[in-house]
Every structure is written in structure tokens, then in C-alpha cells.
Amino acid sequence: MEPILPGAPWLVAHKSTLGVNKPKKITLNGQDYVIWHNQKGEMFALDNICPHMQAPLSNGWVCQDRDTITCPFHALEFDGQGRLQQGDKKDTQPITRPLELIISNDCIWTYAGFEPRLPIPDLHQKIADDYEFIGVTGEKSIQGDFLTNLMVNYDYNHQNGTHKELFKITSCNVSSFEEKGYYATVKQELTRANNTLVEILKNPILGIFPKTLTNRLEYAFPSTTAFFAKTPIGDIAQIHILYPETAKITKTFILMYAKSSIL
Questions:
Q1: Which residues span the domain enclosing 77?
Q2: Residue 199 in contact with residue 206, Cβ under 8 Å?
Q3: Average pLDDT of 209-236?
């Protein structure tokens, strides 16, 4: 496939979703990669294919003594630079392609080998400085091209459709919209109808939401939508991430942050 937005930074995973020395496959712009990290937190990534018989390296295992990944077919070992390692001997040149990674606040970014044309958004750093990381949720591959999913995420009025029934939204008022280059900020107020006790018991999070939600949405093109909301027990920040796996499949996950107002 033709790469989508070459030169854009893509947030492909959070370190918390990776077990130590546990290989994981990711797909970006139609290309499969294997990523892993060692006990020191160092990250490695290679094309997810052994050049010998095209076995997926993500089905192999990691040698923690040498920080190498081993092919599941014939136990060929490759270091994080893609060089073949045989015992204590290591080739001088890579024979499988490494993927350059940029790690920031345990977020794993990559330009997938392209010359950077956009910076990694500082929105993530601002959130990490002000909130406590809670975890990753909602990770899934969505049937649909990246542009379509991006437009849905950028539709700041979609709460009136997608989330209307769940949160019993009765109105959505946008109080301000600011745009600056690849960044945009939207402030809005959502009013809600009362939830029944049965609804709260089924979904306890509904019990902490007030009747009027004052929200802020911040967008950092092309991958990031951050949702900020105040609740009676604290502030929450949800970072919704998108990136193109293939021409027709989009990856999404959410980074959850919070800070308490009762401590």
C-alpha cells in the first residue's frame, strides 16, 4: 500500500502493554514489525520477517542475555539493529531492517523510516506533567480506512450521536473553537438527563458524572484527540490514538490519565 502521511509521527504502542522480553507484532502502513523491550527498558523493533524463510519473528522468543530475538523456524538470532548473531559472533551489517523508535513518557513513536515532517505533539508531555497515568484501554483494530476514522474523531459534535444514549446527553453547546496549524482546541458543555439506579449499577462511572459536563477537546494532527473533563472526584484526560495499520484497517487505543481533587 502507499504509505499514509509519510513523515508524520505515529504513536504505535505504550510500554505498559509490552511484557519484558515479550515480542509483540504491530502493523503500520501495511508493514508488520516486531517490537520488544528488555529489563532495562530499552526498546527494539525490526521488520517482522526472518530473511531466511520469512517466518514471523513475533512468534519467536527473546534471548535476554544478548537482547536478541530468535526466529521460531531455525533459531536464527537477530539483535535490535537487525544483525545476525551466532553465539558470541555478530555480523557487522544488518540483514533485516530495524525500525527507529522514539520513546517519550513510555509512549512509543515512530516515523517508520521517513524523514520527519511533523513534530511529536507536545500535548502528550503536558498531560504527563499534570496527570497520573492510569492505563491503556479500548485497544482494537477497526474495519475502515484511516481518513474516515480520523474524520469521526475530529467531529467534536459526535457525542450527540455515538455517546448520546449511554450518557443520556440532551444538548451539546460549543463555547469556543481555536485552531493553530496542526492543533485545535474545542470547549463545550454537555447537559445530561438523570440516570436511573439500574443504569448506574450497570455502569458505575455514570454515577460520578454531573448533570452538566464541561469538556475540552484538543487535537494534534494526525493521530491524537485528547478529551478533558471535570468530575466531582477529579479531572480525567483521555488520549484517543489512531494510526493506519493497512489501507482498510485502523488501529485505535486510549491512554487514560487522571488527577484527584479529594486528596
A1: 10-110
A2: yes
A3: 87
